[in-house]
């Protein structure tokens, strides 16, 4: 019987597919080990390389930058090109860099002395003029780095290699800030000549970093090469090419196949594949990155601290870390991550205060009660916005949704394309239709005040993300004191006093801190593997073992 | 017995005849009925809440408790496949129904009036045919944003030419037959000829094309969801599940992608088998 | 070349131009039908000042009558000025140019696979007895239900996880390395079409095997292989060619799926990405490009059919 046999064969083929798909034996018992990592084993940098490498291809998980202008976008390609005045070491301490010294000479005067052997890629020497220009460029209200300059009165060139910054009040955060991109050094002549095209694929950039910008093919790659005249010694890598791979599965494939030499922020979901790779290795480092969600307007349910507390109580952090981070992170008690102060003078004080904060816990009964007390209309769904394509945040949103369901809150997920998502941050109208925004945030430079100022102060004092209208005079006063007190211990005391008040209000419901993940092919070494990659030339010591 | 009844009876006879002689068709019918049941009762049949996370361990392999395993958030894949049937099936249904209606109207109009009307209709058909369905769907997404509605409507338009061409050719052939002239002479009204005689005669071919079109529409819509342009996570649409399971795939947990993929393949396979058989029998029936 | 062929050619060219014109109008009108103001997209997310709005409207001719805007767009496309991407703020031409090569290579590779395995298995099914026929029928039944993305994930799983013979990411560098990299993507694209071509070829060849002229040739004692080449296959080829144009053109669109799955930076992945980000200028240009490819390839196939079999030039399909 012809037809019967065809039926049997088709059925057999389908069965074979089924067998292939689900019923094959696993290599290991579970594909998802989410074992916790011993945080004392975290590595902030790999040993410096000794051998030269012609070409290294690095994948940028954050995708293609919109610009290479350090003031315009966050891209891991930028720190190797454009240096900041001070350097951030992998352990998050601040060291001299282009500036040999940058110190307070009196409570309102800050003097920056520059190295005399620094040149831009085109050979022109770096002068105080360039530095003053670069700082002024960030001291405009539209700049993302403006908060660092709010207390600055004037910036003055006081020598060929000296810039003096005059302040209206002492600023304990300024020195750390100019170790970040707020202190990025650009060529004045080049920026002025390039005009609007500065930082774009056609205009390029002109900086002093260890790698020289060569070519940017939009949508494909950015090519950079070793700066032979770098003041810190030429890098060992001849050509460092950046490709853009935002899809986690694609990135994991590319890394495991050896098509790409390395990447930061690799997807935790592929932890086991990375760990089992013969060709490369996964390195875990300390980070300031954390997963959190916070309110977006002052009228919705998200603005009610009771709702945030309730959601916080309904989310199992251990489960979150095991599922979303595959064990590559740890619980965090407040939005300011401990690594932010790891390199600061008053680190012990901050740590002691942090340890006293209530750790997040799971308590559904109390959560339900808080929802009831809040009097919020639970029939209206709450909307959580997340950027599209980020698997971890999509999972985070699903977890928030499930937590809401358990305590009687209906939560909807609004996945937004990059442009629509970034709109949330500068357009109040875009925030009206949503209640929360869930993000992964990180601090690119040391300092404890960054988040606190942005989330808690009134808008006119720097509370750019204080969308829920949080207002507490005591907190405001303490935070202002912390900023304008140059003595580290006294500044820490003021911050800690504020933190004790604001932490329970959960202006951000912090879900976990994530370790810095780096995947690097065997044979290569020398990269920074802590969160310092965002603001230091992390590929300076890259090369072969 | 009128022509309409003859034609109408033919479809049923074709299916009956096919089924008795061909077990493959029986298998295909079983699958199609199964999928239809899943589409209607999927949510109710699901052993767990398809959107509930941590109903089991995360990324667990298939077991008695979780026959298809669980996904990266500990959701039950079987429940999600069941709940995902309706959204995965409704789109293709809309595509084939809309494109069949539009295509048949266009094809019959062109054949009926001929001349300039036919010329214009043929040009419209040519034009739509020149824009690949996937491209039209992607263009719709670029215009109206992600989601299944815009691509579904775009595909409905993109599928019109195939139906229109088929119906136009069939209608011309039918209109050329002697009985049509006889009906005219008998004084039967145009509307009556069209709807009581012409349309029923074209139904078998239309039915066959609709069946085949369903399979293609399902693949196209699943592809659009796979590309991230259609249904959005955490929806339990099959295409979304296939795409979402990719990281797990290389981590050695293929079931997150494979089970929804299996259902796409099975459904399309069954529908294709039915479509091919119905076409064959419809053609033989005409001779 | 006889008169029939020339007439077909001229007619084809006219049709081609008309279809392209109408398609360009449809694609252009996407801007008009899109909800929201294009100025907002062009301003790139920042809330534009009235002066900026003014400048953008002037720069992009948004205040001109619609037909002038259309002429400006089409004129630009014809002269190589493809407009500016909403997202990248660069020339669309600069975005597209470096990506065409890899997509063309992928499509050609796929077409070769389809030709070899699709036509090959069709011929086998038609000529090598019922056993082979049945085997091919089963294979094609399954193949026709195997969409690109399912084959792609199966291949990725098998090769990334189990075998590791072929790379599962990227397009490679240099011709041979590119072929090596594009093997799995090409297979994933080809499977469905191989099944489809196999069916078409089988049908066409079976039809010819029983044709009168083939029987005559057999009686005249012409060798089997020659009969097959000169009588059966040549006469079956118009039916195969008729779907070839549509298929190759369709591959340019479906390559988006393989490119996405295997991380290849080609035209298709750019189209997908641009659609996701609502980068309409890029989507429009790529769509138009794909339509041009479609129309031209179809015309080429029709002409080829007319050359092989001048008779077919008169009763054209659906005429």
TrEMBL record, chain A:
Keywords: Signal, Transport. Residues 93-423 form the Solute-binding protein family domain. Residues 1-25 form the signal peptide. It comes from the Bacteria. Gene3D superfamilies: Dipeptide-binding Protein, Domain 1 (3.90.76.10), Dipeptide-binding Protein, Domain 3 (3.10.105.10), Periplasmic binding protein-like II (3.40.190.10). The keyword Transport applies. Pfam families: SBP_bac_5. Belongs to the bacterial solute-binding protein 5 family. This is Solute-binding protein family 5 domain-containing protein.
Automatic annotation (TrEMBL), chain B:
Keywords: Cell membrane, Membrane, Transmembrane, Transmembrane helix, Transport. It is a multi-pass membrane protein. Residues 89-275 form the ABC transmembrane type-1 domain. The chain crosses the membrane at residues 24-46, 89-112, 124-142, 148-167, 205-228, 259-278. It is found in: Cell membrane. It comes from the Bacteria. Pfam families: BPD_transp_1. InterPro entries: BP-dependent_transpt_permease, MetI-like, MetI-like_sf. PANTHER family: D,D-DIPEPTIDE TRANSPORT SYSTEM PERMEASE PROTEIN DDPC-RELATED, OLIGOPEPTIDE TRANSPORT SYSTEM PERMEASE PROTEIN APPC. Belongs to the binding-protein-dependent transport system permease family. This is Dipeptide ABC transporter permease DppC. It comes from Agromyces allii.
TrEMBL record, chain C:
SUPFAM superfamilies: MetI-like (SSF161098). PROSITE patterns: ABC_TM1 (PS50928). Keywords: Cell membrane, Membrane, Transmembrane, Transmembrane helix, Transport. The chain crosses the membrane at residues 12-33, 100-124, 136-159, 179-197, 240-262, 282-308. InterPro entries: BPD_transp_1_N (IPR045621), MetI-like (IPR000515), MetI-like_sf (IPR035906). Residues 100-301 form the ABC transmembrane type-1 domain. Coiled coil: none annotated. Belongs to the binding-protein-dependent transport system permease family. This is ABC transporter permease.
């Amino acid at each position: 019987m012809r037809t019967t046999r065809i039926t049997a064969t088709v059925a057999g083929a389908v069965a074979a597919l089924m067998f292939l798909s689900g019923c094959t034996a696993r290599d290991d018992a579970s594909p998802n080990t989410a074992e916790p990592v011993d945080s004392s084993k975290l590595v902030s940098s790999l040993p410096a390389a000794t051998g030269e490498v012609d070409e290294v291809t690095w994948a940028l998980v954050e995708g293609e930058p919109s610009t290479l202008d350090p003031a315009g976008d966050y891209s891991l390609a930028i720190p190797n090109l454009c240096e900041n005045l001070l350097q951030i070491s992998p352990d998050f301490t601040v060291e001299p860099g282009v500036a040999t010294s940058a110190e307070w000479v009196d409570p309102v005067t800050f003097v920056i002395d520059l190295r005399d052997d620094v040149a831009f890629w085109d050979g022109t020497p770096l002068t105080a003029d360039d530095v003053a220009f670069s700082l002024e460029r960030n001291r405009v209200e539209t700049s993302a780095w403006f908060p660092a300059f709010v207390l600055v009165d004037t910036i003055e060139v006081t020598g060929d290699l000296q810039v003096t910054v005059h302040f209206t009040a002492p600023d304990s955060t300024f020195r750390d800030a100019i170790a970040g991109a707020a202190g990025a050094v650009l060529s004045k002549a080049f920026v002025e000549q390039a005009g609007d095209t500065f930082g774009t694929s056609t205009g390029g950039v002109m900086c002093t970093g260890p790698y020289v910008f060569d070519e940017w093919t939009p949508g494909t790659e950015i090519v950079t090469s070793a700066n032979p005249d770098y003041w810190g010694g030429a890098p060992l890598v001849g050509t460092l090419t950046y490709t853009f791979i935002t899809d986690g599965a694609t990135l994991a494939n590319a890394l495991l196949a050896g098509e790409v030499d390395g990447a930061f922020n690799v997807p935790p979901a592929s932890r086991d594949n990375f760990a089992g790779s013969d060709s490369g290795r996964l390195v875990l480092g300390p980070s300031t990155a954390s997963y959190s969600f916070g309110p977006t307007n002052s009228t919705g349910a998200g603005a009610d601290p009771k709702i945030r507390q309730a959601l916080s109580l309904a989310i199992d952090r251990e489960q979150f870390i095991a599922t979303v981070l595959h064990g590559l992170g740890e619980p965090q008690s407040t939005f300011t991550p401990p690594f932010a102060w790891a390199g600061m003078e008053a680190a012990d004080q901050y740590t002691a205060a942090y340890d006293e904060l209530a750790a997040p816990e799971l308590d559904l009964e109390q959560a339900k009660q808080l929802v009831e007390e809040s009097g919020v209309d639970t029939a209206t769904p709450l909307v959580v916005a997340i950027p599209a394509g980020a698997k971890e945040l999509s999972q985070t949103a699903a977890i928030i949704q499930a937590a809401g369901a358990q305590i009687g809150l209906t939560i909807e997920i609004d996945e937004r394309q990059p442009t629509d998502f970034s709109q949330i941050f500068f357009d109040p109208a875009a925030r009206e239709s949503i209640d929360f925004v869930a993000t992964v945030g990180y601090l690119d430079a040391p300092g404890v005040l960054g988040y606190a100022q942005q989330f808690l102060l009134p808008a006119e004092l720097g509370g750019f993300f204080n969308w829920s209208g949080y207002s507490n005079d005591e907190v405001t006063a303490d935070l202002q004191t912390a900023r304008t007190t140059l003595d580290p211990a006294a500044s820490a005391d003021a911050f800690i006093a504020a933190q004790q008040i604001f932490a329970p209000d959960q202006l951000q419901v912090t879900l976990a801190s994530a370790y810095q993940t780096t995947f690097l092919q065997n044979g290569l070494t020398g990269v920074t593997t802590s969160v310092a990659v965002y603001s230091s030339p992390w590929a300076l010591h890259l090369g072969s073992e | 017995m009128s022509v309409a009844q003859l034609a109408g009876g033919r479809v049923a006879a074709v299916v009956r005849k096919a089924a008795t002689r061909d077990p493959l068709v029986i298998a295909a019918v079983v699958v199609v009925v199964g999928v239809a049941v899943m589409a209607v009762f999927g949510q109710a049949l699901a052993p767990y809440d398809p959107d509930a996370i941590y109903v089991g361990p995360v990324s667990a392999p298939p077991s008695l408790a979780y026959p298809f395993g669980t996904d990266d958030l500990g959701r039950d894949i079987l429940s999600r496949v069941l709940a995902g049937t309706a959204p995965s099936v409704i789109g293709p249904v809309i595509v084939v129904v809309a494109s069949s209606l539009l295509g048949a109207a266009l094809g019959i109009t062109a054949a009926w009036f001929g001349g300039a009307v036919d010329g214009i209709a043929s040009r419209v058909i040519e034009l739509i045919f020149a824009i690949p369905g996937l491209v039209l769907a992607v263009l719709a997404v670029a215009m109206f944003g992600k989601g299944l509605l815009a691509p579904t409507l775009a595909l409905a338009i993109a599928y019109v030419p195939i139906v229109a061409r088929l119906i136009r050719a069939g209608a011309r052939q039918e209109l050329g037959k002697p009985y049509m002239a006889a009906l005219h002479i008998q004084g039967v009204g145009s509307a009556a000829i069209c709807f009581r005689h012409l349309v029923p005669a074209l139904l078998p071919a239309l039915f066959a094309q609709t069946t085949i079109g369903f399979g293609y529409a399902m693949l196209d819509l699943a592809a659009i969801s796979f590309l991230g342009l259609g249904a959005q996570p955490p929806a339990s649409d099959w295409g979304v599940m296939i795409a979402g399971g990719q990281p797990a795939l290389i981590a050695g947990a293929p079931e997150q992608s494979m089970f929804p993929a299996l259902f796409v393949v099975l459904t399309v396979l069954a529908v294709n088998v039915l479509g091919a058989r119905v076409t064959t029998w419809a053609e033989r029936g005409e001779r | 070349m006889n008169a029939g062929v020339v007439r077909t050619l001229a007619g084809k060219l006219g049709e081609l131009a008309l279809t392209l014109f109408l398609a360009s109008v449809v694609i252009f009108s996407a801007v008009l039908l899109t909800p929201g103001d294009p100025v907002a997209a062009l301003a790139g997310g920042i809330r534009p000042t009235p002066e900026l709005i003014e400048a953008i409207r002037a720069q992009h001719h948004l205040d001109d009558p619609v037909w002038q805007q259309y002429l400006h767009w089409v004129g630009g496309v014809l002269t190589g000025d493809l407009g500016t991407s909403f997202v990248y703020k660069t020339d669309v031409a600069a975005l597209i140019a470096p990506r065409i090569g890899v997509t063309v290579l992928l499509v050609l590779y796929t077409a070769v696979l389809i030709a070899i395995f699709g036509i090959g298995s069709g011929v086998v099914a038609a000529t090598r007895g019922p056993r082979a026929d049945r085997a091919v029928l089963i294979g094609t039944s399954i193949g026709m239900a195997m969409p690109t993305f399912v084959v792609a994930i199966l291949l990725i799983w098998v090769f990334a996880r189990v075998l590791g013979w072929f790379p599962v990411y990227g397009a490679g560098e240099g011709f041979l390395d590119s072929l090596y990299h594009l093997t799995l993507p090409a297979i994933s694209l080809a499977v469905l079409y191989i099944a489809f071509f196999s069916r078409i070829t089988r049908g066409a060849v079976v039809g010819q095997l029983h044709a009168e002229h083939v029987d005559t040739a057999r009686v005249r004692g012409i060798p089997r292989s020659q009969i097959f080449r000169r009588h059966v296959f040549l006469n079956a080829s118009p039916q195969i060619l008729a779907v070839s144009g549509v298929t190759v053109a369709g591959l340019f669109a479906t390559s988006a799926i393989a490119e996405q799955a295997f991380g290849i930076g080609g035209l298709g992945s750019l189209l997908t990405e641009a659609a996701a980000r609502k980068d309409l200028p890029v989507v429009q240009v790529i769509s138009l490009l794909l339509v041009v490819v479609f129309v031209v390839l179809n015309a080429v196939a029709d002409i080829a059919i007319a050359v092989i079999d001048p008779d077919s030039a008169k009763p054209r399909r659906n005429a």
